[in-house]
User: Which sequence fits this backbone?
């Protein structure tokens, strides 16, 4: 039917909203195992959150608060669910948590896959590492 819209355009399209909730490592063990294979380091002191889509776990992220700033950790989206904006949603979520903790800025160790989004948001590069990681800082 010709509805006057370009092919593939759906004015009712909404990005799928994740449910992001606190979790413990045991809840996301398989993602931690997969994340380690992609270079992520997990520490028990990190406050972890899992991201669910219609009840299915698709991602993971974590945060550690210090006096005046927070560190964002362990962003991981399962490969089958990538490039659909879920990292972006988790980042928004953790930035709210950092602000709630009175942080003035956040730091993260970005990978090649996450660096573009940090830079898009105005993060500055603090240091680059040989292994392809980049330490970034984003003012809140
Ligand atoms: C990095 C990671 C979390 C991104 O998750 P994602 O849900 O696919 O990311 P999003 O869909 O929200 O993408 C947001 C933006 O990040 C950038 N990005 C994400 N994946 C990218 C890729 N493969 N290549 C280049 N840029 C990419 C893009 O700017 C993208 O925006 P766009 O799709 O509008 O161009 C995911 O690839 C992952 O888990 N990788 C392995 C672990 C890792 O690198 N963690 C990051 C630690 S800081």
Assistant:
């Amino acid at each position: 039917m010709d509805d006057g819209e370009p092919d593939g355009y759906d004015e009712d399209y909404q990005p799928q909203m994740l449910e992001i909730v606190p979790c413990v490592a045991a809840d996301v063990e398989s993602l931690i195992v997969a994340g380690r294979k992609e270079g992520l380091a997990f520490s028990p002191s990190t406050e972890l959150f899992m991201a669910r889509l219609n009840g299915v776990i698709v991602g993971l992220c974590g945060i550690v608060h210090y006096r005046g700033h927070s560190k964002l950790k362990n962003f991981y989206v399962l490969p089958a669910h990538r490039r659909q904006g879920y990292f972006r949603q988790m980042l928004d979520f953790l930035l709210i948590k950092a602000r709630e903790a009175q942080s003035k800025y956040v730091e993260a160790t970005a990978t090649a896959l996450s660096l573009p989004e940090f830079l898009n948001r105005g993060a500055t590069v603090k240091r680059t590492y040989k292994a392809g990681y980049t330490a970034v800082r984003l003012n809140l």
About this structure: The helical segments are 29-37, 86-100, 115-120.
